[in-house]
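Backbone-to-sequence.
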């Protein structure tokens, strides 16, 4: 086979323009002092607004981080208490079943059942109060950063 030789073009860097743009001289014009002051005030107001928005966004982010941390900690504490209550109730049920298997008469079974129901009712009432107060505390602690952030926002404006 025969190779066809082609003339290679000289290499041009990628940034070299293919054509020249015509150059125009812009007329020099004096900007009135009032126009310059107006533009400077507008730029300054835009900078001030940006700073206020940036500060508000940072404060909102901090508030949300605090709220999330508080809610996470409170939810973990609530879950630990709930699991403790569940474990106690489960153990009480097993103890009751074990004792029930050892009764000899029907009257002993009835007495044991009545005693177990009374103890469980008292236990469940106490557990419910504890979980309720913990949930109320969690709600108050979680809402506190939000209330503080909102009141701070309205005080500064």
């Amino acid at each position: 086979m025969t190779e066809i030789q082609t003339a290679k073009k000289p290499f041009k860097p990628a940034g070299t323009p293919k054509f020249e743009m015509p150059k125009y001289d812009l007329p020099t014009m004096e900007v009135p002092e009032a126009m310059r002051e107006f533009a400077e005030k507008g730029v300054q107001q835009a900078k001030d607004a940006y700073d206020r928005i940036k500060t508000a966004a940072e404060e909102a982010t901090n508030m949300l981080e605090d709220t999330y941390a508080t809610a996470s900690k409170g939810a973990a504490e609530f879950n630990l208490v709930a699991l403790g209550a569940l474990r106690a109730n489960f153990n009480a049920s097993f103890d009751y079943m074990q004792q029930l298997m050892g009764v000899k008469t029907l009257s002993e079974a009835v007495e044991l059942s009545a005693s177990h129901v009374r103890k469980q009712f008292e236990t469940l009432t106490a557990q419910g109060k504890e979980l309720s107060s913990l949930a109320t505390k969690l709600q108050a602690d979680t809402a506190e950063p939000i209330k503080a952030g909102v009141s701070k926002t309205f005080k500064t404006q």
